[in-house]
Amino acid sequence: VPEIIERYFEDVEVADTFHSGPHAVTKEAMIAFAREYDPQPFHLDANAAAGSDFGELSASGWYTAAVAMRLFITGGLRFVGGAIGLGVDELRWPAAVHADDKLALTTEILEKRPSKSTPGRGIIRLRNTATKENGEVVLSFTANAMVQRRPTG
Amino acid sequence: VPEIIERYFEDVEVADTFHSGPHAVTKEAMIAFAREYDPQPFHLDANAAAGSDFGELSASGWYTAAVAMRLFITGGLRFVGGAIGLGVDELRWPAAVHADDKLALTTEILEKRPSKSTPGRGIIRLRNTATKENGEVVLSFTANAMVQRRPTG
Question: Which of A117, B43, B44, B151 is the most buried (most CB within 10 A)?
Answer without folding.
Answer: B43
